[in-house]
Amino acid sequence: MHISSHRQRWLAMAGIAIASFLGCIDFTIVNTAVPAIQSALQADIAQVQWIVTAFVVALSSCTIAVGQLADRYGRREVMFASMALFALASLGAGLASSLGWLIAWRAIQGMACAGLYTASAALVAAMFPEQQRGKALGLLFSINGLGLALGPVAGGLLVEAWGWRAVFLVNVPLIAAGFALCMGRLSVAAASTSRERFDWPGAVLLLMVLPCALAALIHGSDWGWAARSTLGLLAVAALAGTALVVVERRAPTPLLRWPLIIQPRFAVAACATAALAFFYCVAFFLMPLYLGELRGQDSATTGWLLLPTTAVMALVSPLAGRGCDRFGTGPVMGAGFAALLVSALMQSAFDASTPWSWVLAAFAFMGLGWGCVLGPSMTSALTALPPAMAGTALGMATTLHNLGGALGLAIGTVLYRFAAQGRGFVAGYQWVMWLLAAVCIGTLAVVWLGRKALRERSA
Protein backbone atom coordinates (compact mmCIF):
# COMPACT_ATOMS: atom_id res chain seq x y z
CA MET A 1 0.00 0.00 0.00
CA HIS A 2 1.33 3.42 -0.93
CA ILE A 3 0.55 6.58 1.01
CA SER A 4 1.38 9.77 -0.90
CA SER A 5 3.24 11.55 1.87
CA HIS A 6 4.54 11.15 5.38
CA ARG A 7 1.84 13.47 6.73
CA GLN A 8 -0.96 11.69 4.88
CA ARG A 9 0.28 8.34 6.17
CA TRP A 10 0.15 9.44 9.79
CA LEU A 11 -3.26 11.07 9.36
CA ALA A 12 -4.58 7.77 8.00
CA MET A 13 -2.89 6.01 10.91
CA ALA A 14 -4.77 8.33 13.29
CA GLY A 15 -8.09 7.44 11.69
CA ILE A 16 -7.41 3.71 11.94
CA ALA A 17 -6.24 4.13 15.54
CA ILE A 18 -9.49 5.90 16.50
CA ALA A 19 -11.55 3.02 15.12
CA SER A 20 -9.37 0.38 16.76
CA PHE A 21 -9.43 2.33 20.05
CA LEU A 22 -13.23 2.40 20.02
CA GLY A 23 -13.37 -1.34 19.38
CA CYS A 24 -11.17 -1.94 22.42
CA ILE A 25 -12.81 0.57 24.74
CA ASP A 26 -16.19 -1.01 24.05
CA PHE A 27 -14.87 -4.15 25.73
CA THR A 28 -14.63 -2.39 29.09
CA ILE A 29 -16.67 0.82 28.92
CA VAL A 30 -20.00 -1.02 29.00
CA ASN A 31 -19.20 -2.92 32.21
CA THR A 32 -19.35 0.26 34.28
CA ALA A 33 -22.75 1.07 32.76
CA VAL A 34 -24.26 -2.36 33.50
CA PRO A 35 -25.77 -1.42 36.90
CA ALA A 36 -27.38 1.70 35.40
CA ILE A 37 -28.75 -0.28 32.43
CA GLN A 38 -30.04 -2.99 34.77
CA SER A 39 -31.91 -0.38 36.80
CA ALA A 40 -33.24 1.61 33.83
CA LEU A 41 -34.51 -1.39 31.88
CA GLN A 42 -35.59 -3.36 34.98
CA ALA A 43 -33.60 -6.47 34.04
CA ASP A 44 -32.13 -9.20 36.21
CA ILE A 45 -28.48 -10.25 36.05
CA ALA A 46 -29.15 -13.19 33.69
CA GLN A 47 -30.72 -10.84 31.16
CA VAL A 48 -28.34 -7.91 31.46
CA GLN A 49 -25.23 -10.10 31.09
CA TRP A 50 -26.25 -10.67 27.46
CA ILE A 51 -25.23 -7.05 26.81
CA VAL A 52 -21.65 -8.26 27.22
CA THR A 53 -22.13 -11.86 26.06
CA ALA A 54 -23.79 -10.92 22.75
CA PHE A 55 -20.83 -8.69 21.89
CA VAL A 56 -18.25 -11.35 22.73
CA VAL A 57 -20.14 -14.20 21.00
CA ALA A 58 -20.57 -12.20 17.79
CA LEU A 59 -16.91 -11.18 17.89
CA SER A 60 -15.84 -14.80 18.47
CA SER A 61 -18.00 -16.13 15.66
CA CYS A 62 -16.93 -13.58 13.05
CA THR A 63 -13.21 -12.90 13.60
CA ILE A 64 -11.81 -15.66 11.37
CA ALA A 65 -14.41 -15.18 8.64
CA VAL A 66 -13.94 -11.41 8.49
CA GLY A 67 -10.17 -11.82 8.44
CA GLN A 68 -10.38 -14.10 5.41
CA LEU A 69 -12.81 -11.71 3.69
CA ALA A 70 -10.32 -8.88 4.28
CA ASP A 71 -7.50 -10.90 2.72
CA ARG A 72 -9.69 -11.77 -0.26
CA TYR A 73 -11.53 -8.54 -1.02
CA GLY A 74 -9.30 -5.86 0.48
CA ARG A 75 -8.57 -4.71 4.02
CA ARG A 76 -9.48 -1.10 3.32
CA GLU A 77 -12.92 -2.13 2.13
CA VAL A 78 -13.50 -4.34 5.17
CA MET A 79 -12.21 -1.60 7.49
CA PHE A 80 -14.58 1.01 6.05
CA ALA A 81 -17.54 -1.39 6.10
CA SER A 82 -16.78 -2.31 9.71
CA MET A 83 -16.50 1.33 10.76
CA ALA A 84 -19.86 2.14 9.16
CA LEU A 85 -21.52 -0.88 10.75
CA PHE A 86 -20.00 -0.03 14.14
CA ALA A 87 -21.36 3.52 13.96
CA LEU A 88 -24.83 2.25 13.01
CA ALA A 89 -24.82 -0.33 15.82
CA SER A 90 -23.63 2.26 18.36
CA LEU A 91 -26.43 4.61 17.34
CA GLY A 92 -28.96 1.76 17.57
CA ALA A 93 -27.71 0.70 21.00
CA GLY A 94 -27.81 4.27 22.28
CA LEU A 95 -31.40 4.71 21.14
CA ALA A 96 -32.61 1.20 22.08
CA SER A 97 -36.07 1.19 23.64
CA SER A 98 -35.77 -2.24 25.26
CA LEU A 99 -33.20 -4.70 26.51
CA GLY A 100 -33.84 -6.98 23.53
CA TRP A 101 -32.98 -4.27 21.03
CA LEU A 102 -29.93 -3.26 23.04
CA ILE A 103 -28.63 -6.85 23.01
CA ALA A 104 -29.27 -7.14 19.26
CA TRP A 105 -27.33 -3.95 18.52
CA ARG A 106 -24.50 -5.12 20.81
CA ALA A 107 -24.25 -8.30 18.73
CA ILE A 108 -23.92 -6.19 15.59
CA GLN A 109 -21.25 -4.13 17.34
CA GLY A 110 -19.35 -7.35 17.99
CA MET A 111 -19.54 -8.31 14.31
CA ALA A 112 -18.22 -4.87 13.34
CA CYS A 113 -15.37 -5.09 15.86
CA ALA A 114 -14.25 -8.34 14.26
CA GLY A 115 -13.44 -6.25 11.19
CA LEU A 116 -11.86 -3.43 13.20
CA TYR A 117 -9.53 -5.87 14.99
CA THR A 118 -8.47 -7.90 11.97
CA ALA A 119 -8.04 -5.10 9.42
CA SER A 120 -6.44 -2.35 11.52
CA ALA A 121 -3.07 -3.98 12.25
CA ALA A 122 -2.79 -5.35 8.70
CA LEU A 123 -3.47 -1.91 7.22
CA VAL A 124 -0.93 -0.20 9.47
CA ALA A 125 1.70 -2.83 8.67
CA ALA A 126 1.14 -2.31 4.94
CA MET A 127 1.11 1.50 5.14
CA PHE A 128 4.56 2.00 6.66
CA PRO A 129 8.02 1.13 5.35
CA GLU A 130 9.86 -1.61 7.20
CA GLN A 131 12.00 0.80 9.23
CA GLN A 132 8.87 2.52 10.63
CA ARG A 133 6.54 -0.48 10.86
CA GLY A 134 7.50 -1.55 14.37
CA LYS A 135 7.02 1.97 15.71
CA ALA A 136 3.59 2.29 14.06
CA LEU A 137 2.34 -1.10 15.22
CA GLY A 138 3.65 -0.48 18.72
CA LEU A 139 1.75 2.82 18.80
CA LEU A 140 -1.44 1.13 17.57
CA PHE A 141 -1.26 -1.59 20.24
CA SER A 142 -0.51 1.01 22.92
CA ILE A 143 -3.61 2.95 21.88
CA ASN A 144 -5.63 -0.28 22.07
CA GLY A 145 -4.32 -0.90 25.57
CA LEU A 146 -5.20 2.67 26.50
CA GLY A 147 -8.76 1.97 25.33
CA LEU A 148 -9.03 -1.02 27.64
CA ALA A 149 -7.57 0.99 30.51
CA LEU A 150 -9.76 4.06 30.06
CA GLY A 151 -12.98 2.13 29.49
CA PRO A 152 -14.15 1.84 33.11
CA VAL A 153 -13.35 5.47 33.93
CA ALA A 154 -14.86 6.84 30.73
CA GLY A 155 -17.96 4.70 31.18
CA GLY A 156 -18.44 5.86 34.75
CA LEU A 157 -18.05 9.55 33.87
CA LEU A 158 -20.37 9.31 30.86
CA VAL A 159 -23.08 7.48 32.81
CA GLU A 160 -22.85 9.96 35.66
CA ALA A 161 -23.03 13.00 33.36
CA TRP A 162 -25.46 11.95 30.61
CA GLY A 163 -26.79 8.47 31.44
CA TRP A 164 -25.99 5.01 30.11
CA ARG A 165 -26.98 5.81 26.50
CA ALA A 166 -23.99 8.15 26.19
CA VAL A 167 -21.67 5.13 26.46
CA PHE A 168 -22.86 4.06 22.99
CA LEU A 169 -23.73 7.39 21.36
CA VAL A 170 -20.25 8.84 21.95
CA ASN A 171 -18.91 6.35 19.38
CA VAL A 172 -20.81 7.96 16.50
CA PRO A 173 -18.96 11.32 16.21
CA LEU A 174 -15.63 9.65 17.00
CA ILE A 175 -16.01 7.04 14.26
CA ALA A 176 -17.03 9.84 11.88
CA ALA A 177 -13.74 11.58 12.71
CA GLY A 178 -11.91 8.35 11.95
CA PHE A 179 -13.65 8.14 8.59
CA ALA A 180 -12.69 11.72 7.76
CA LEU A 181 -9.03 11.03 8.51
CA CYS A 182 -8.95 7.82 6.45
CA MET A 183 -10.98 8.89 3.39
CA GLY A 184 -8.74 9.62 0.42
CA ARG A 185 -5.62 8.60 2.31
CA LEU A 186 -5.83 4.81 2.12
CA SER A 187 -5.16 3.43 -1.33
CA VAL A 188 -6.87 0.27 -2.50
CA ALA A 189 -5.17 -2.74 -0.97
CA ALA A 190 -4.35 -5.61 -3.26
CA ALA A 191 -7.04 -8.23 -2.84
CA SER A 192 -6.38 -11.93 -3.09
CA THR A 193 -6.19 -13.36 -6.60
CA SER A 194 -7.13 -16.83 -5.36
CA ARG A 195 -10.16 -18.36 -7.08
CA GLU A 196 -10.94 -20.63 -4.16
CA ARG A 197 -14.39 -20.04 -2.77
CA PHE A 198 -14.88 -18.45 0.62
CA ASP A 199 -16.08 -20.96 3.21
CA TRP A 200 -19.62 -19.59 3.60
CA PRO A 201 -21.04 -22.87 5.01
CA GLY A 202 -18.40 -22.87 7.73
CA ALA A 203 -19.10 -19.21 8.59
CA VAL A 204 -22.87 -19.81 8.86
CA LEU A 205 -22.46 -22.95 10.98
CA LEU A 206 -20.04 -21.18 13.33
CA LEU A 207 -22.62 -18.43 13.81
CA MET A 208 -25.16 -21.08 14.83
CA VAL A 209 -23.07 -23.09 17.29
CA LEU A 210 -22.01 -20.50 19.88
CA PRO A 211 -25.27 -18.54 20.41
CA CYS A 212 -27.38 -21.70 20.68
CA ALA A 213 -25.03 -23.46 23.09
CA LEU A 214 -24.56 -20.41 25.32
CA ALA A 215 -28.28 -19.55 25.39
CA ALA A 216 -29.06 -23.10 26.55
CA LEU A 217 -26.31 -22.96 29.18
CA ILE A 218 -27.37 -19.58 30.58
CA HIS A 219 -31.13 -20.14 30.62
CA GLY A 220 -31.26 -23.90 31.21
CA SER A 221 -31.71 -23.47 34.96
CA ASP A 222 -34.70 -21.14 34.36
CA TRP A 223 -36.38 -23.12 31.62
CA GLY A 224 -35.45 -26.52 33.04
CA TRP A 225 -32.64 -28.68 31.69
CA ALA A 226 -35.17 -31.11 30.22
CA ALA A 227 -37.40 -28.38 28.74
CA ARG A 228 -38.02 -28.38 25.00
CA SER A 229 -36.40 -24.98 24.53
CA THR A 230 -33.19 -26.04 26.32
CA LEU A 231 -32.94 -29.41 24.59
CA GLY A 232 -33.82 -27.83 21.25
CA LEU A 233 -31.02 -25.28 21.48
CA LEU A 234 -28.54 -27.94 22.58
CA ALA A 235 -29.62 -30.16 19.70
CA VAL A 236 -29.17 -27.36 17.18
CA ALA A 237 -25.72 -26.55 18.63
CA ALA A 238 -24.68 -30.21 18.53
CA LEU A 239 -25.92 -30.75 14.97
CA ALA A 240 -24.36 -27.50 13.74
CA GLY A 241 -21.09 -28.36 15.51
CA THR A 242 -20.99 -31.82 13.93
CA ALA A 243 -21.76 -30.37 10.51
CA LEU A 244 -19.05 -27.74 11.06
CA VAL A 245 -16.42 -30.42 11.68
CA VAL A 246 -17.45 -32.31 8.53
CA VAL A 247 -17.62 -29.17 6.36
CA GLU A 248 -14.27 -27.85 7.55
CA ARG A 249 -12.52 -31.14 6.80
CA ARG A 250 -13.75 -31.02 3.21
CA ALA A 251 -13.45 -27.29 2.51
CA PRO A 252 -10.50 -26.27 0.26
CA THR A 253 -9.92 -23.17 2.41
CA PRO A 254 -11.54 -23.93 5.78
CA LEU A 255 -12.20 -21.26 8.39
CA LEU A 256 -10.96 -23.52 11.19
CA ARG A 257 -7.57 -25.16 10.85
CA TRP A 258 -7.85 -28.25 13.07
CA PRO A 259 -4.18 -29.35 12.71
CA LEU A 260 -3.15 -25.93 14.08
CA ILE A 261 -5.22 -26.36 17.24
CA ILE A 262 -3.45 -29.58 18.25
CA GLN A 263 0.07 -28.28 17.53
CA PRO A 264 1.64 -28.37 21.06
CA ARG A 265 2.96 -24.80 21.28
CA PHE A 266 -0.23 -23.35 19.84
CA ALA A 267 -2.43 -25.55 22.02
CA VAL A 268 -0.75 -24.33 25.23
CA ALA A 269 -0.92 -20.70 24.09
CA ALA A 270 -4.57 -21.07 23.09
CA CYS A 271 -5.43 -22.61 26.45
CA ALA A 272 -3.71 -19.71 28.23
CA THR A 273 -5.40 -16.96 26.21
CA ALA A 274 -8.83 -18.62 26.48
CA ALA A 275 -8.41 -19.03 30.25
CA LEU A 276 -7.39 -15.38 30.57
CA ALA A 277 -10.53 -14.22 28.75
CA PHE A 278 -12.63 -16.64 30.83
CA PHE A 279 -11.24 -14.93 33.94
CA TYR A 280 -11.44 -11.25 33.06
CA CYS A 281 -14.80 -11.34 31.24
CA VAL A 282 -16.70 -12.81 34.18
CA ALA A 283 -14.70 -10.95 36.85
CA PHE A 284 -15.03 -7.62 35.07
CA PHE A 285 -18.76 -8.18 34.73
CA LEU A 286 -19.26 -8.81 38.47
CA MET A 287 -16.78 -6.27 39.88
CA PRO A 288 -18.86 -3.17 38.94
CA LEU A 289 -21.93 -4.87 40.44
CA TYR A 290 -20.01 -5.45 43.67
CA LEU A 291 -18.94 -1.82 43.81
CA GLY A 292 -22.37 -0.47 42.88
CA GLU A 293 -24.83 -2.82 44.57
CA LEU A 294 -22.94 -3.88 47.68
CA ARG A 295 -20.69 -0.88 48.31
CA GLY A 296 -23.11 1.81 47.09
CA GLN A 297 -20.68 3.58 44.76
CA ASP A 298 -21.96 5.75 41.90
CA SER A 299 -20.95 5.11 38.28
CA ALA A 300 -18.11 7.63 38.18
CA THR A 301 -16.56 6.34 41.41
CA THR A 302 -16.93 2.75 40.20
CA GLY A 303 -14.97 3.63 37.07
CA TRP A 304 -12.13 5.12 39.08
CA LEU A 305 -12.06 2.13 41.45
CA LEU A 306 -11.69 -0.25 38.50
CA LEU A 307 -8.74 1.72 37.14
CA PRO A 308 -6.12 -0.28 39.12
CA THR A 309 -7.02 -3.33 37.03
CA THR A 310 -6.85 -1.80 33.57
CA ALA A 311 -4.10 0.73 34.29
CA VAL A 312 -1.79 -1.92 35.76
CA MET A 313 -2.58 -4.16 32.79
CA ALA A 314 -1.62 -1.40 30.34
CA LEU A 315 1.59 -0.61 32.25
CA VAL A 316 2.67 -4.24 32.65
CA SER A 317 2.03 -5.33 29.05
CA PRO A 318 5.21 -3.84 27.51
CA LEU A 319 7.29 -5.10 30.45
CA ALA A 320 5.86 -8.58 29.91
CA GLY A 321 7.05 -8.41 26.30
CA ARG A 322 10.59 -7.68 27.47
CA GLY A 323 10.31 -10.50 30.00
CA CYS A 324 9.39 -12.91 27.20
CA ASP A 325 12.52 -11.92 25.26
CA ARG A 326 14.65 -12.66 28.32
CA PHE A 327 12.93 -15.59 30.04
CA GLY A 328 10.54 -17.01 27.42
CA THR A 329 6.75 -16.90 27.31
CA GLY A 330 6.18 -19.81 29.71
CA PRO A 331 7.59 -18.23 32.90
CA VAL A 332 5.88 -14.89 32.19
CA MET A 333 2.50 -16.53 31.62
CA GLY A 334 3.02 -18.64 34.73
CA ALA A 335 3.66 -15.50 36.77
CA GLY A 336 0.54 -13.97 35.25
CA PHE A 337 -1.74 -16.82 36.25
CA ALA A 338 -0.20 -16.84 39.72
CA ALA A 339 -1.17 -13.15 40.04
CA LEU A 340 -4.68 -13.90 38.76
CA LEU A 341 -4.95 -16.70 41.32
CA VAL A 342 -4.02 -14.27 44.11
CA SER A 343 -6.64 -11.81 42.84
CA ALA A 344 -9.38 -14.47 42.74
CA LEU A 345 -8.58 -15.66 46.26
CA MET A 346 -8.52 -12.09 47.58
CA GLN A 347 -11.83 -11.29 45.86
CA SER A 348 -13.40 -14.44 47.29
CA ALA A 349 -13.12 -12.73 50.70
CA PHE A 350 -15.04 -9.60 49.60
CA ASP A 351 -18.06 -8.48 51.59
CA ALA A 352 -19.78 -5.17 52.33
CA SER A 353 -17.08 -4.08 54.80
CA THR A 354 -13.87 -5.25 53.09
CA PRO A 355 -11.14 -2.60 53.51
CA TRP A 356 -10.61 -0.55 50.37
CA SER A 357 -6.89 -1.29 50.44
CA TRP A 358 -7.69 -5.00 50.13
CA VAL A 359 -10.18 -4.37 47.30
CA LEU A 360 -7.79 -2.20 45.28
CA ALA A 361 -4.90 -4.63 45.82
CA ALA A 362 -7.05 -7.51 44.53
CA PHE A 363 -7.98 -5.44 41.47
CA ALA A 364 -4.32 -4.54 40.88
CA PHE A 365 -3.25 -8.21 41.03
CA MET A 366 -5.84 -8.93 38.36
CA GLY A 367 -4.33 -6.23 36.14
CA LEU A 368 -0.84 -7.63 36.77
CA GLY A 369 -1.91 -11.11 35.70
CA TRP A 370 -3.86 -9.79 32.71
CA GLY A 371 -0.83 -7.89 31.43
CA CYS A 372 1.52 -10.85 31.93
CA VAL A 373 -0.67 -13.27 29.96
CA LEU A 374 -2.31 -11.33 27.12
CA GLY A 375 0.75 -10.46 25.00
CA PRO A 376 2.85 -13.58 25.74
CA SER A 377 -0.01 -15.95 24.92
CA MET A 378 -0.55 -14.26 21.54
CA THR A 379 3.21 -14.25 20.93
CA SER A 380 3.35 -18.00 21.55
CA ALA A 381 0.45 -18.56 19.16
CA LEU A 382 2.08 -16.45 16.44
CA THR A 383 5.44 -18.23 16.73
CA ALA A 384 3.83 -21.67 16.72
CA LEU A 385 3.74 -21.55 12.90
CA PRO A 386 5.98 -20.18 10.15
CA PRO A 387 5.70 -16.41 9.57
CA ALA A 388 3.68 -16.97 6.38
CA MET A 389 0.85 -18.38 8.51
CA ALA A 390 0.95 -15.67 11.18
CA GLY A 391 -2.44 -14.30 10.17
CA THR A 392 -4.04 -17.72 10.47
CA ALA A 393 -2.49 -18.27 13.89
CA LEU A 394 -3.58 -14.84 15.14
CA GLY A 395 -7.12 -15.31 13.84
CA MET A 396 -7.50 -18.69 15.50
CA ALA A 397 -5.96 -17.50 18.78
CA THR A 398 -8.20 -14.42 18.86
CA THR A 399 -11.28 -16.54 18.22
CA LEU A 400 -10.39 -18.98 21.00
CA HIS A 401 -9.65 -16.04 23.31
CA ASN A 402 -13.08 -14.56 22.71
CA LEU A 403 -14.72 -17.98 22.99
CA GLY A 404 -13.12 -18.37 26.41
CA GLY A 405 -14.60 -15.03 27.42
CA ALA A 406 -18.07 -16.00 26.20
CA LEU A 407 -17.94 -19.30 28.09
CA GLY A 408 -16.69 -17.52 31.20
CA LEU A 409 -19.64 -15.13 31.15
CA ALA A 410 -22.11 -17.95 30.60
CA ILE A 411 -20.75 -20.37 33.21
CA GLY A 412 -19.93 -17.63 35.73
CA THR A 413 -23.43 -16.14 35.51
CA VAL A 414 -25.11 -19.53 35.96
CA LEU A 415 -22.90 -20.30 38.98
CA TYR A 416 -23.49 -16.85 40.48
CA ARG A 417 -27.26 -17.13 40.23
CA PHE A 418 -27.25 -20.64 41.69
CA ALA A 419 -25.06 -19.65 44.66
CA ALA A 420 -26.83 -16.32 45.27
CA GLN A 421 -30.31 -17.86 45.58
CA GLY A 422 -31.22 -17.62 49.23
CA ARG A 423 -27.66 -16.70 50.18
CA GLY A 424 -27.25 -13.25 48.65
CA PHE A 425 -24.78 -11.39 46.46
CA VAL A 426 -21.68 -12.17 48.54
CA ALA A 427 -22.19 -15.94 48.28
CA GLY A 428 -22.64 -15.78 44.50
CA TYR A 429 -19.56 -13.59 44.11
CA GLN A 430 -17.51 -15.88 46.33
CA TRP A 431 -18.43 -19.03 44.39
CA VAL A 432 -17.50 -17.40 41.09
CA MET A 433 -14.11 -16.35 42.45
CA TRP A 434 -13.46 -19.92 43.61
CA LEU A 435 -14.26 -21.05 40.06
CA LEU A 436 -11.77 -18.54 38.66
CA ALA A 437 -9.15 -19.70 41.16
CA ALA A 438 -9.66 -23.28 39.93
CA VAL A 439 -9.28 -22.12 36.32
CA CYS A 440 -5.98 -20.42 37.22
CA ILE A 441 -4.65 -23.55 38.94
CA GLY A 442 -5.62 -25.71 35.96
CA THR A 443 -3.99 -23.33 33.48
CA LEU A 444 -0.84 -23.12 35.57
CA ALA A 445 -0.62 -26.91 35.30
CA VAL A 446 -1.06 -26.74 31.51
CA VAL A 447 1.64 -24.07 31.18
CA TRP A 448 4.02 -26.08 33.36
CA LEU A 449 3.39 -29.32 31.45
CA GLY A 450 3.81 -27.49 28.15
CA ARG A 451 6.95 -25.59 29.15
CA LYS A 452 9.07 -27.56 26.65
CA ALA A 453 6.71 -26.80 23.78
CA LEU A 454 6.69 -23.11 24.70
CA ARG A 455 10.47 -22.98 24.32
CA GLU A 456 10.25 -24.27 20.73
CA ARG A 457 9.75 -21.79 17.91
CA SER A 458 8.66 -22.54 14.38
CA ALA A 459 11.23 -22.05 11.70
Query: Roughly how many Å is the radius of gyration?
Result: 21 Å
The count of DSSP E runs of length 2 or more, i.e. the number of strands, is 0
Helix content: over 70%
CATH superfamily of the largest domain: MFS general substrate transporter like domains
Distance N to C terminus: 27 Å
Give the overall silhouette: globular
Structural class: mainly alpha
CATH topology type of the largest domain: Growth Hormone, Chain: A
- Using the 3D structure, state the CATH architecture of the largest domain: Up-down Bundle
Summed over residues and divided by their number, the pLDDT gives a mean of: 83
The largest sheet is:
none
- Which CATH top level class of the largest domain fits? Mainly Alpha
Query: In percent, how much strand structure appears in the residues?
Result: under 5%
Order of secondary-structure elements: HHHHHHHHHHHHHHHHHH
Q: What is the count of DSSP helices, taking H or I runs of 4+ residues?
A: 18
Give the number of domains: 3
Residue runs with pLDDT of under 50 for 5 or more positions: 189-193
Summarize the structure in words.
With 459 residues, the protein is mostly helical. The protein is 83% helix and 0% strand. The protein has three domains: 1-191, Growth Hormone, Chain: A (Up-down Bundle), CATH 1.20.1250; 200-250; 257-459, Up-down Bundle (Growth Hormone, Chain: A), CATH 1.20.1250. It has helices spanning 6-40, 45-48, 50-73, 75-94, 99-127, 130-162, 166-169, 171-182, 200-223, 228-250, 258-261, 264-294, 299-327, 329-347, 356-382, 390-420, 425-449, 451-455. The protein is globular and about 60 Å long.
